[in-house]
Design brief:
2 copies of one chain form a homodimer.
Chain A lengths: L1 E5 L3 H13 L3 E5 L2 H11 L3 E5 L7 H11 L4 E6 L3 H9 L4 E5 L3 H14 L8 E3 L2 E4 L4 E4 L5 E2 L2 H12 L4 E3 H9 L7 H15 L9 E4 L3 E4 L3
Helix pairs in contact in A: 2-3, 6-7, 6-8
Chain A binds a DNA duplex through helix 6 and helix 8.
Chain lengths: 224, 224
DNA sequence: CCTGATTGTCACCGTTTTATAACCGATCAG
DNA sequence: CTGATCGGTTATAAAACGGTGACAATCAGG
């Protein structure tokens, strides 16, 4: 598990690096925004710890750039008393934040929670009702039918719906979980993805039995 | 999703309560430490917003008592410049904190992040009397009847009435909470919305039993 | 570099939802 | 009595939404 730590404060960077290394993670570091982006490209870490206040490019810009190409978990660091920054960070797609000062223990707890949530620790085969999802193989099986291959996005969408099987998941949440941003203008993407997924998993895609629309609310996976 | 707000500052308490109610959460309030603990016992909220400085029992004691029996997310409120309090609060098991003053938007962002972290973002249905509102599904159920689909605005209106079940809510407040503005010319919108909602939830829409008019004042949801 | 698969973008359709307007009856003050 | 206001109702226009097909851009594997 590789992690990128980006902070211009050398001491803090080293402290975080040490903490993570001790915990058994591989760590790469960057001291400013551009470096962080280069490192991100070069190392493709599994998680990013990102300070908001950095020379070169602010944490916002880095976060935005990362979100453009990846859904990797991002934890933002901020100094106390800049709550407005936090709101912006979370809206830009950051997954969590920490306010300085924080204890190494807190940092580790947050990181573990985040990894758990991102499902990077357990790749348990998800199933509900007649739907069985094999994440490693990128396939679904409906009932006893032949498994169907899914694309990356289709898999993510179905994974989210499956995790909340029987309950409606709002379009906003799906947008965040699948693409990593909440630009509500991007409804079209979801429309298309749902359409394509239905072609694959529904007996009659025109009258969905599994992936149903909750008009005005979102979509839900129906299980008996 | 039920939330407990404990703060001795009445104005702030109401402000927070209003913010959370508007966001669709059910809110219970307490003005001091002992009351907070009683409410916690009686209502078993899903999240607690806790001021550190309160008469009766300090926020610390309340937090500690809560942590003894529950892992419910706790957000502490503190005034700026009392950093040592924060450290203590976090060590006592608080999950997050906010420094006064803060914006409602910030509070909401934090709460959502916290709920996400705790994996509790699925809200339980909101209910009063025979009316059960499922916010995720955008549906109401009256008694044991078939659930009825609601539109976005109908849902918001009913949510507000339900949050104040048994009490009249003024037209002005409804306008603000549903549409976000108080242009008194827009009373027509409310008239329409009430009409449409009655068609959906009343047995005989011409003689409303549930969504009754308080002439000259507003509307109220009658529950037995 | 080429090729097929995947993903993003656009345009269009029919339906649902929301906004706007007009009309009706009841009530009440002048 | 008259005119104004209020709440309810009906009708209609405007906007938003969801579904679909076509096609362009991008990505991944050979």
């Amino acid at each position: 598990m590789k992690m990128l730590v980006a902070d211009d404060d050398r001491d803090l960077r080293e402290l975080i690096g040490f903490t993570l290394t001790q915990a058994g993670y591989l760590v790469v570091k960057a001291g400013d925004g551009p470096a962080a982006l280069r490192m991100f490209e070069a190392e493709s870490p599994d998680l990013v710890v990102l300070d908001i206040n950095m020379p070169g490019a602010s944490g916002f810009q880095v976060c935005e750039a990362i979100r453009k190409r990846s859904r990797v978990p991002v934890i933002m660091l901020t100094v106390r008393g800049e709550e407005e920054d936090l709101v912006r960070a979370l809206e830009l797609g950051a997954d969590d934040y920490l306010t300085k000062p924080f204890s190494p223990r807190t940092l580790l707890a947050r990181i573990k929670a985040l990894l758990r949530r991102a499902g990077m620790e357990n790749s348990a085969p998800l199933a509900a009702g007649r739907v069985t999802l094999d994440i490693d193989e990128h396939t679904v099986r409906i009932g006893t039918a032949q498994p169907v291959r899914l694309t990356k996005l289709e898999l993510r969408l179905l994974q989210m719906l499956l995790a909340n099987a029987g309950h409606t998941v709002s379009t906003d949440r799906l947008l965040i979980q699948v693409w990593g941003h909440r630009n509500s203008a991007d409804r079209q993407l979801l429309k298309q993805l749902v359409h394509r997924l239905r072609q694959k998993i529904e007996v009659d895609p025109a009258t969905p039995q599994l992936l149903q629309t909750a008009s005005g609310a979102g979509y839900k996976l129906v299980v008996e």
